[in-house]
Fold this sequence. Notes:
Blueprint: H1 5-11, H2 19-25, H3 37-58, H4 64-75, H5 77-86, H6 97-101, H7 108-126, H8 128-138, H9 140-145, H10 155-165, E1 172-179, E2 186-192, E3 199-204, H11 207-225
Antiparallel strand pairs: 1-2, 2-3
Helix pairs in contact: 2-7, 3-4, 3-7, 3-8, 5-7, 7-8, 10-11
Amino acid sequence: MIKNPEVLCKKLGLKFNDPQLFVMALTHRSVGARNNERLEFLGDAILGFVIAEKLHEIFPEASEGVLSRLRASLVNQCSLADVARKHNIGDYLILGTGELKSGGFRRDSILSDAFEAIIGSLFKDQGIEVCKQWILTMFDEKFTCLSLENWQKDPKTQLQELMQSKKLSLPEYTLLSMSGLPHEQTFKVKCAIELTDKFSVGKGVSRKRAEQDAAEQMLILLKRDN
């Protein structure tokens, strides 16, 4: 059973003047002609602009090429799907029967499109400023981990190099759980390091993706503690 979109709307910190716009953003094309594709098109353009403007602001010395690559690292399909998963957007997607049976609510392409469609729907409902603030809130953690020195390195590499620089043991990743059918599993992994008694937990459609997510959460945790 598809969960109530109003619940997700509240979890995302949103309140729509026209709730049907939000429902439309969650509706996949497999349902029929009335779907989220046009809103996704709009949201994609808005997201690219907002992220580009923020990068231009926080990296004043970066060249156009570097800014472009930084933006691509934030707005690619994998990145957007990760943001969608953190907020369980897949649980609220309105999918056709075929997509439901094949686990479409876990697919990166469908999750990322829905996230962009939500941006498009928010813009239509409340304008660019509200939309911009919500996007920046959603990407706050990713911006926290971003720097010109390490943006091209994945989170596991960054965390490993940090531990090596302090002559400490490498991060330890422990598989906590696997759920779902064999072809559409979700992995949950714990990351522990010597620098802190705290640990992080990551999720992903593969163990590797879950470990990357756990490493990213650990980097965020370390930055906050410092």
